[in-house]
Every structure is written in C-alpha cells, then in structure tokens.
Design a protein that fits this description.
InterPro entries: Homeodomain-like_sf, HTH_SB, RNaseH_sf, Tc1-like_DDE_dom, Transpos_IS630-like, Transposase_5, Transposase_Tc1-like, WH-like_DNA-bd_sf. This is Tc1-like transposase DDE domain-containing protein. Pfam families: DDE_3, HTH_SB, HTH_Tnp_Tc3_2. There is one protein chain. The protein is built from 14 helices and ten strands. It is α/β, with parallel strands linked by helices. The strands form four sheets. Strands 9-8-5-10 form a four-stranded mixed β-sheet, sandwiched between helices. Strand 8 and strand 9 form a beta hairpin. The chain starts with 11 loop residues before the first strand and ends in a 12-residue tail after the last helix. The N terminus and C terminus are likely disordered.
Length: about 375
C-alpha cells in the first residue's frame, strides 16, 4: 500500500508496536485495530507517520480522509478524531459531511477560479470597445476601474473581448470615400460587369507611384469581428500626397509590363503629355486596334492639354471613378516592385533608381520589363 503523503507532515513518530495496538484496541475497539494494522507496514518502513496539525489551506490526502471516515464509523466523535489526528474540528466535520452527502471522500470537480468581472461589467467592456474601435485594452481597464471601482488588468480585458469574438487586428488602409465616390464606384461596377475577357485583355493599365528609400507606415490595431475588415470604424483612412523618394510612371496589360519612366521634380500636364507620347503610345500599340487606355482622374490626366492630345492620337480612354486605386491591378505590380526593392536593401537614391530600372528579380513575359 502506498505511503500517506500528508501524514508525513505530522510532527512526532508514532510507534506501531504491540503496546500501541493494544491501547487502540482497548480505547477504540477492534474495527480501528484492523485499519491501523493494514497501514502499519508502510508506516513502519517509511517512519514518516508524524502527528501534527495539517498546514492551513492544503488539501488532505485521500488516505487521511478515509481514516477520518473509518474512525467516525467506529463511533468516535469529531473532537476525538480531531485531537487524535491533530486536525481542526471543522476539517473533520467537513470531511465527514462531504462523505455523508456524496458517499465519497473525493472532492467534486471544480470549474476553476470564479470570473472577476460580472456579466454587467462584461457588457460595459463590449460597449466601450464597439463604441471606440481604437481604444486600447489598458484604456478600457482604466475606464472599467473608474466606473466600478474594481481594479482590472489589461490582459483580463483582452480575454473578455476574445470571448465575445473581438480581436486586436491591424486596421486596413483604404482611401477616404465620400458618398459621391461610393456611388461612382457602384456605377463603374455596373457598367463593366458585362465586359468579357477579350475586352480586359486589351486594357493598358497605368499609374504613378512613389518608391520610398526608408521609412515605415506604422501599425494601428482595432477591435473587430470576422468579416468587419472594411467597416468604416475598422479601417484606417489614407489620403494622397504622402512623402517619397522617387516617383515613376509605368503601365501593364494582360500581355505583360510596358514602359517605365522616372519623373523628376513636380509633374504637370505638359510633362505627362511627354510621357504619353514617349512611353504610353509604344506600349498601347502592342495591344492592337482594340486597345483601351486607363488612367485615373488626376488633374494632370484630365487637363485640357492631356484630353486634346489623347483625342488627337485617337486613344480610347476608359471611364474611371475617383478615389479607386484598389480597382487598378497595377497596384499589385507596384507592391511586388517595392517588395523587391526592399529586399535589395539599397542605401541611397542612386542605388534605388538602378534597382528599379533593372527590374531586379522581376521576370514577366512576353514583354520585356521596362
């Protein structure tokens, strides 16, 4: 039989010789003698049966609980058992009462530590997070503590929000759209939804982009549920005219990439017309007579000078809705180019221009890059 763990905390050893057994027989009866005899071998071998008060807060072993129940069945009272085993009377009473209620000395399954936050406090946290999606967990904890007076950690706030389906995520960046922009985008989608693949294969997509040498866009987090990536409260609006180190104009189509041209200084309508004649027209001619040219509604693109040039060159221009860079597939090309430039770890503007001109690591066919 295994030794009794908690009994090893008792203070002074008890001899299990014949005198002790005879004393137990005289005082408690034969039933207790059988119990002590069955335990005597392991107790004598270990020598760890020491009687002392059990440490406060520690749980009694199953063997010790069984001893308490056995002594009670043999007719001993709570005080007698507590004095003999050096336990508190309330501990003995609770052990026997639990046995009488459940028929076992084992503790019932527990459900862990009780929740620190009430249901009302959890609803308050949910309202705060949904009202201000950019509110940090520490700020919510301070707000909850200020209202309820109960100190709450930021980690508790995070666990509560996770349980109701809110997780801290990076807010998606998108242009700041007004109602007029949304209506124009919807109209664009309705007009183009009937176009077949033959039409899209003859579209020449164009755009300008800034390629940074250094810098970071930063990270912003919001509380959101699945499917709320593009909800107004969960996105980080962006606007045009951000900083950059080099600006380039490029174009592409389903056949591959077209011409690339660096822009020095501030581009105006005359400079843009030169780019169209030098770089756009050669790329457009490769697509045949059904080619369609796409550019956004930048003021330089819609100026009288540019409009007159395109009309003179008989270029078919696609109607485009404002504030819709996400509809232009060339944005994916810019993303790949910037990723490749970042991999090259350039240290000055001249290296940056050399990497962009060479198109290092980029291979699109059949049209040669730049």
């Amino acid at each position: 039989m295994s030794k009794l763990g908690p009994i090893s905390h008792f203070l002074s050893p008890v001899s299990c010789d014949s005198l002790v057994l005879q004393g137990l027989r005289c005082e408690w009866g034969a039933g207790v003698l059988n119990l002590v005899s069955s335990l005597s071998h392991s107790l004598i071998l270990t020598g760890h049966w020491k009687f002392n008060m059990a440490p406060h807060g520690k749980e009694l072993s199953e063997d010790l609980k069984k001893i308490i129940v056995a002594l009670h069945k043999d007719g001993l009272g709570y005080k007698k058992i507590a004095k003999t085993l050096k336990l508190s009377c309330s501990t003995v009473a609770k052990t026997i009462q639990r046995f009488n209620w459940t028929g076992s000395t084992q503790n019932r399954p527990r459900h862990g530590r009780p929740k620190k936050l009430s249901a009302r406090a959890q609803r308050h946290i949910q309202r705060l997070s949904l009202g201000n999606r950019r509110m940090s967990a520490a700020s919510i904890a301070a707000e909850v503590e200020g209202v309820g007076g109960q100190p709450v950690s930021a980690q508790t706030i995070r666990r509560t929000l996770h349980q109701i389906g809110l997780h801290g995520c990076r807010s998606r960046r998108k242009p700041l759209l007004k109602m007029m922009h949304k209506k124009a985008r919807k109209q664009f989608a309705e007009d183009k939804q009937t176009k077949d693949m033959e039409y899209w294969n003859h579209v020449l997509w164009s755009d300008e982009t800034k390629i940074n040498l250094f810098g970071s866009n930063g990270v912003k987090c919001v509380w959101r549920q699945p499917g709320e990536e593009y909800k107004d409260k969960c996105v980080l609006p962006t606007v045009n005219h951000g900083g950059g180190s080099a600006m380039v104009w490029g174009c592409m189509s389903a056949a591959g990439t077209g011409e690339l041209q660096f822009i020095e200084g501030t581009m105006n309508a005359n400079m843009y017309c030169d780019i169209l004649k030098q770089s756009m027209i050669p790329s457009l001619q490769r697509l045949g007579r059904r080619a369609v040219f796409q550019h956004d509604n930048d003021p330089k693109h819609t100026s009288k000078t540019t409009t007159a040039l395109l009309k003179k060159l008989r270029v078919k221009v696609m109607d485009w809705s404002s504030m819709s860079p996400d509809l232009n597939p060339i944005e994916h090309l810019w993303g790949i180019l910037k990723w490749k430039v970042e991999e090259c770890k350039v240290s000055n503007i001249h290296q940056l221009c050399d990497v962009v001109r060479s198109g290092r690591g980029l291979q699109w066919q059949p049209v040669k890059l730049w």
